[in-house]
Amino acid sequence: MSALRRKLGDEYQVVSTSASGGGGLPPPRSAPRGKRQRFVDKNGRCNVQHGNLGGESSRYLSDFFTTLVDLKWRWNLFIFILTYTVAWLFMASMWWVIAYMRGDLNKAHDDSYTPCVANVYNFPSAFLFFIETEATIGYGYRYITDKCPEGIILFLFQSILGSIVDAFLIGCMFIKMSQPKKRAETLMFSEHAAISMRDGKLTLMFRVGNLRNSHMVSAQIRCKLLKSRQTPEGEFLPLDQLELDVGFSTGADQLFLVSPLTICHVIDSKSPFYELSQRSMHTEQFEIVVILEGIVETTGMTCQARTSYTEDEVLWGHRFFPVISLEEGFFKVDYSQFHATFEVPTPPYSVKEQEEMLLMSSPLIPPAVSNSKERNNSVECLDGLDEVGAKLPSKLQKITGRDDFPKKLLRMSSTTSEKAYSMGDLPMKLQRISSVPGNSEEKLGSKTTKMMSDPMSQSVAELPPKLQKLSGGGGRMEGNLPPKLRKMNSDRFT
Fold this sequence. Notes:
Blueprint: H1 2-8, H2 58-62, H3 64-70, H4 73-102, H5 123-134, H6 149-177, H7 181-184, E1 187-189, E2 193-198, E3 201-210, E4 216-230, E5 236-244, E6 254-255, E7 261-266, E8 287-296, E9 302-310, E10 314-316, E11 318-320, E12 324-326, E13 331-333, E14 341-343, H8 351-361, H9 368-391, H10 394-399, H11 405-422, H12 428-434, H13 440-461, H14 465-471, H15 483-493
Parallel strand pairs: 2-10
Antiparallel strand pairs: 1-3, 2-3, 3-7, 4-5, 4-6, 4-8, 8-9, 11-14, 12-13
Helix pairs in contact: 3-6, 4-5, 4-6, 9-11, 11-13
Organism: Picathartes gymnocephalus (White-necked rockfowl)
Subcellular location: Membrane
GO molecular function, one term: G-protein activated inward rectifier potassium channel activity
């Protein structure tokens, strides 16, 4: 135990290992459940039976070769022996019939008579002749003669039929023997899956391993989640299949399977386990089907290994033991700890609950949003003033002075409001200093008044001499304007 803590850290505690891992007991569940009906067994066999095919069963006969390969070994051996036995008996009977019809059976011991087949005088001798011919044993005691044309035709038919039967049955047996199903038995999956934190994210993990030294070429792994659900339209889907991303977007699903690997599925907003928590696992019912595919290096045939994990076989807050250690000149894999897990600190909440709690604990929206709104209002005011100024006559545009006069005032007012809003973000000492009378606000007001008076004086100075006299040195201009301009102003603004 001390060596394990030095290896993994003091904060980790070994809780349980599987029977094959370390002899411990499985973790206790809150309430024992009955036997779970699985869609895929742990050994990869699918618990599906097809029934009520009706007329569709004839499709099996249309592809009889594949049907024969898919049969169990006992049925294959039975069909193999039965086919050869029937073929031999049938062909031996044909040779016996020819000998019987020609009368060779009664004259078999007559040296002056030439039979169809020499030394065939009963059914056993006809059967032995067929076996010697079919198996090309060639003892030389029984042979066909040229006095029997029907025997020559039967001999040709026998050769063709024998070649077809040999190719069919021997090819079927060879393909069945070379199927990589037994290779899949040397591909291991962990007995349990685990959920814990990895790289700061809640992750579903399980382990795969290869017991042989020969590699799996182009090994790829996929995961399916089987779970019943009901659609918004009311349709019930008993075995709805959802894809679990185990690195398809990053290429992590392409495995270099020379040592045991831990396959990870990150639980995020796109994952079907987005709302899964430690508490909800006791009421959920699902099954994770794992499919590992690859090419067998020795035969070049595609191999597929399957397994599944039900909700009872997913351990929350666990992690797998490390199994690889560095020895002198090589890496050693300890398969005795392949299925073993230990407990690690893991939050019991789902990813959705964690995100909601993080949102609730985050600070409120800063006042920069309101400042942006006021900036938009000031920009709208500036645009309105520009439109009004553009519609005035050219003389009145000159009278009003520079074009950027109202823009400067509004910009100053907007910056003043921004400073006022930004005061709330300052520390308390700075806010007290800024609140002292006679500070920046009064200075800003005096500067604004000065800037408002300067453009007016400049605009009056830029007027023609006649208009300067009428304006009375910067006073109200509307009463001293000529009648035409006064009428134009009144028409324009009314």
